[in-house]
Write a structure and sequence with these properties.
The complex is a heterodimer of chains A (306) and B (298). Chain A is mainly alpha-helical and 306 residues long. Helices cover 78% and strands 0% of the residues of chain A. Classes of the chains: A mainly alpha (306), B mainly alpha (298).
Chain lengths: 306, 298
């Protein structure tokens, strides 16, 4: 098991390195000249040259790449073109807002989704099941950004109950967190229900009932533990969704997090910030995949690894 | 009280008893069919049924409300936007964009993902290792980032969007199929098939594949609707189709600036998205229940 975990960690590190390289080359080769964008229109060619040298953009690509890797090793990812501050600092300044929103949405999704999903499977066709199925369908079918806009239109513009933009009071959380967790709730409800239904139909649940295990234990200890296997992957994959979702939700509600930062930076062609966003997200996702792999091996003994 | 309700066994023979041998009659999703029919009607007959040219503005009649409101006319049933373009015509033509982008992408990357997932989960060892590392690598590039990169090279457009989805979609399928495959290949019926002398290809296609069909259909169902939403989302953020395209997401983005006095510009495109997505989701569920061998056999 330890050797297995160690191997996974090495592979994860290599993945991150590969992503760093790909990201660097694609951004540098494909993008327009950032110096031209940053300078005011009345700048002289000399100004342009100074700026180019300052950011090291005049050197050959391979030298730039080597410098990038060297600096990345020290945790230095270059200056943001827009803020003339280290890109990492710019990102970290905006990070807490995103994490707050993301965690609220994540826990809401897991708790509500599992709760509705399990009860729906135990009592098919009950009121909760019907509500759950309706809600799951709505969550899958309603686009997040449209829900956000409709909420702004009704609760913000027409009724004036909730603030429509920014961050500050707990009231500011309600609409963005609702938007962000809508799809994950639907996803978890749906998968929890279907995998619980499969588990409840199985022979080991029948066996447990024949043995006279109390129904509560049958549901949670026998059925749910087996249903968990397919749920683990989905629950972890929600983090990936939350990153994309935060870009959308933060844009709509002017939430000062990294999602909005990356959109702004993209349109301003501020590559270091976009790069650092990519690398940060990569790091998070690779780490999560690592955890999923390890958890998988623990909870499902049928899955054999060499 | 609720504990008694929750932990009481469902009575055998009742309709909510899942362990009984009775086959539950399938409900036909009329709402889903209606939505889907509406969507395909718009896709096929867009040129015939739309009352105006979706790209032709009429600067005299800008931001007209829908016909039932004061100031609206029946000439423009759902009103006009800030350039005087007919909202209804733009919605109808927008369906074509959603259709082309979504259906094409999914059939393309879905098949890649399933094949790789099957190979990976079945053979295990080095093959599995290689494909899963590739998948991890792919998944650690979040789709939106690949879109950022491609959009900065080729400029944001519908083509960039299709390319991104085509490149990014398969790992999800591969991972899920592989996960199922891993636990299936340890099952007795696969071992028995091996004892009976079945080859690798035969075991994969006729013993393992039917057992994961259920999952693939659920995932693909979620995906068709999902891609429509994603296309609209990216266009909304300005990373997808560009003006004057009548993509629904783009219409929402353009209407968003006028949210305080032109509610119809942000409402109807969203309704169109919901109709299309609902159609695919409901019909997909229905198909899943038909093709689900587990439910049929029980």
């Amino acid at each position: 098991m330890q050797g297995y975990i160690l191997k996974r960690i090495i592979i994860a590190a290599f993945t991150i390195f590969l992503v760093v390289s790909v990201v660097f080359f694609i951004f540098r080769m494909g993008a327009a000249d950032p110096v031209a964008i940053m300078l005011p229109p009345d700048a002289t060619p000399k100004d342009a040259r100074i700026l180019t040298e300052k950011f090291g953009l005049d050197k050959p690509l391979i030298v730039q790449y080597w410098n990038f890797i060297k600096r990345a090793g020290h945790g230095n990812f270059g200056l943001s073109f827009r803020y003339t501050e280290p890109a990492l600092k710019v990102l970290f300044a905006r990070l807490p807002a995103t994490i707050q929103l993301g965690l609220v949405a994540f826990f809401a999704a897991v708790v509500i989704g599992l709760f509705i999903g399990i009860i729906s499977a135990v009592k098919p066709d009950s009121l909760i099941d019907r509500f759950g199925r309706g809600f799951a369908l709505a969550g899958m079918s309603l686009p997040t950004f449209w829900v956000g806009i409709m909420l702004i239109l009704f609760l913000g513009v027409t009724l004036r109950w909730l603030p429509i933009a920014g961050r500050g009071s707990p009231l500011h959380f309600i609409m963005p967190a609702f938007c962000l967790s809508l799809y994950p709730i639907a996803l978890i409800t749906r998968l929890a229900r279907s995998s619980m239904l499969d588990a409840l139909k199985s022979d080991y649940v029948l066996m447990a009932r024949i043995k006279g295990v109390p129904e509560f234990n049958v549901i949670l200890l026998h059925a749910f533990r087996n249903a968990c296997i397919s749920l683990v992957t989905v629950i972890f994959s929600i983090f990936g969704y939350l990153i994309l979702g935060s870009v959308v939700v933060e844009t709509i509600f002017s939430w000062p997090g990294i999602g909005r930062l990356v959109i702004e930076s993209f349109f301003a062609r501020d590559y270091p910030v976009v790069q650092i966003f990519v690398l940060f997200v990569t790091f998070v996702v690779v780490t999560l995949n690592l955890i999923v792999d390890i958890v998988y091996a623990y909870i499902d003994p049928r899955i054999r690894y060499r | 009280m609720w504990r008694i309700w929750l932990f009481k066994r469902n009575r055998p023979g009742k309709k909510n008893d899942i362990s009984s041998g009775k086959k539950v009659r399938l409900k036909i999703p009329y709402l889903g069919f209606t939505c889907l029919a509406l969507f395909f009607f718009a896709v096929i007959f867009a040129d015939v049924i739309s009352p105006y040219d979706p790209y032709e503005g009429d600067l005299i009649n800008i931001t007209l409300p829908p016909f039932w409101q004061d100031g609206g006319t029946t000439a423009h049933l759902l009103g006009t936007d800030m350039l005087g373009r007919d909202v209804l015509s733009r919605l109808i033509h927008g369906s074509r964009i959603s259709f082309l982008i979504s259906v094409g992408c999914i059939s393309f990357y879905g098949s890649i993902g399933v094949i790789l997932g099957l190979i990976s989960g079945f053979f295990g060892g080095k093959t599995d290792m290689f494909i899963m590392r590739l998948t991890d690598f792919w998944m650690s590039l979040p789709g939106i980032i690949v879109l950022f990169m491609l959009a900065s090279v080729y400029g944001p457009s519908a083509k960039t969007l299709i390319l991104t989805f085509g490149i990014m979609g398969w790992p999800n399928y591969a991972r899920i199929v592989r996960g199922e495959c891993l636990s299936l290949r340890e099952r007795d019926f696969v071992r028995l098939a091996r004892v009976a002398g079945c080859g690798n290809l035969r075991i994969m296609l006729s013993h393992i594949f039917p057992n994961i069909m259920n999952t693939i259909i659920i995932v693909a169902t979620i995906d068709v609707g999902g891609i429509i939403v994603l296309t609209a989302t990216m266009s909304f953020l300005g990373l997808g189709t560009q003006p004057p395209s009548c993509d629904w997401g783009l219409m929402l983005a353009e209407g968003r600036q006028y949210i305080t006095y032109a509610w119809w510009l942000v409402t109807f495109p969203g309704v169109a998205i919901v109709v299309a997505v609902l159609g695919f989701n409901l019909t997909g569920d229905w198909i899943r229940e038909i093709f689900d061998p587990k439910q049929k056999l029980r």
